[in-house]
Amino acid sequence: MDGRSGKGVMDSSHERLVRLRDRYSELVSDRFYAMAASSKFNQAQKRWLHAIGRKRPFQSIDDWVEFENLWKNEDQDLLGALSSEVDKISSLFAVAPWHVLWAMFVRDHLPGDGLSKMFPMDVKHPRARLLVSDHDIGLAEKLHETAAGSDVYIEVCPSDGLRPDHKWAGVPLVSVGIPIELPPELARLECSRALRQARDILRSSGLPMPYRVRGETQDSTATSLVLRHTDPKLLATLIPICLDAGLTLRSEMDGKPHGQSDTLLSGLYMEVRFPPTVQSDHLSKVVKRMIKDSRLIIRGLGLDLGDRLRPSVLVKQNPSLGVDGRKLPKRGLGDLAERLLDDFPAASSEFTLAGRKATTALKSRRSKVKKRFARKGLIPDS
Hints:
Strand content: 5-15%
Shape: globular
Number of helices: 14
Strand order of the largest sheet: 2-1-3-6-4-5
Mean pLDDT: 83
Oligomer: single chain
Radius of gyration: 24 Å
């Protein structure tokens, strides 16, 4: 293979990664549309616009940022209260806090448009780390310098928490956190990318790292389901199920104030840890199995992400469908049909033909969106 063909393969791999990331953003947009329709969000938006003396949101993110920078110096307490409310809504719908904030204060904000497309929508997006023992602070500092500009973070951990053991015990482990709704193909690509970047960082830092890995490494990877809950009942339920599936269950403190907690969608993620000498094909198989087992476990807890993870066109219509977890009032469907038709859908207290067609279509679409939101825990399952 010459240099040009090698570059072509890398470009193709990168384009595929970008395409799959875009599709994932569309997939998790369900959360944003459910949030934007919810009474909790709408009430919070009205309250905070009033608090800053505005009737309408800002025209652009730039306008909001300009105001926010001035506001920071004027009222730290009020800004802290806003941050707390944004975090609550973020946890409830598993939407990244920056998109919650911009949806509140920027007119017609959509996560996939313009500048905002650069910012992940998922509250727990994929993250790669090199785990360095707390006995090797000098190595951690060196790796931090080398890793600057890459997507890999350097994290210092207690040495007794760095498992599994492997024959390259002096070399840091790689950890990749994977959101629970991430499609398997994208998860495997993210892990392969983390593996390549970690190897490059270690080589550049002077650690011996073979270019070709030989021999079996199946005992050197560890998979976990990570829970940001401290609910004893949930932990007691999950421990035996995870053991049966060969997954480690790990609980981490979320640092949230008392009374504020995550939903399953925002409070769960998967993690795979592996040495940088692991074979790429083996890593791919481990990740695929971890995702399959984790999805079966969470389905038993009531969070059903579906067998095939696909974005929904109907979800984007939710601003006009009005699915917010509450039952429509008696005239609600007629009001929605009137907005859809731009005309009153009834005559002499009876729906017109166009009105009947519109209400039938609205009922069907609302039902599909409602089921999709309920499966993901975004609205109550009635």
